[in-house]
Amino acid sequence: MKQHLAEIRKIADNAEPATFADTIEAMERSGETLNRVQRIFFGLVQADTNDARQKIQEAVAPKLAEHQDEISLDPKLFARIKAIYDQRDTLNLEPEQKRLVEPDYEEFVRAGAQLSDADKATLRKLNVEETTLATQFHTKLFAASAAGAVVVDDKAKLDGLSDGDIASAAQDAAARKLDGKYLLALQNTTQQPVLASLKDRALPPR
Fold first, then answer.
1. Helix crossing, 32-47 with 2-12: angle to 10°?
2. pTM to 2 decimals?
3. Taken in order 129, 135, 141, 146, is the CA torsion positive or negative?
4. What average pLDDT does this structure show over 174-190?
């Protein structure tokens, strides 16, 4: 995040008139390392979460919200973006370039770039609060899904499931140190795909 902010500050503090290359294009290139780390970490959390990763997510998510506000609410950076946006029809931009300028400008406006300093301060607090609550909800949802799983002792009760589904249930059980058993995890709160295949109707996930 520090590296990304340093890159953004360099763009915002540029004393030369704003151009597509030194503002819009430079913004597109900035934060490459942070973006890569976020994609990997949050992809891992979605695909294979656990208590340790959730704690990291709860700690990091509000910081990322603050980080994004540092960029979106930066008046000097927005002034450069707006200068290009206001001149977009006279700068001889390529169609692809114009398609970058317009959504960038609109995104900053929607993020609060035109608000007063007082309103920006309020927005910063609300964004952190919203992110914190959303992350806590995700953690509680994961815990509820884990608690709703059904442990099966007898493989015969899984008749109807594919070999892949049975192997996955065995792996999920092993991950919880339930060796030799099978775990049917709760997929969502309203419907369970395994019910379409299980022949033992007395064995639905809770």
1. 140
2. 0.78
3. negative
4. 77
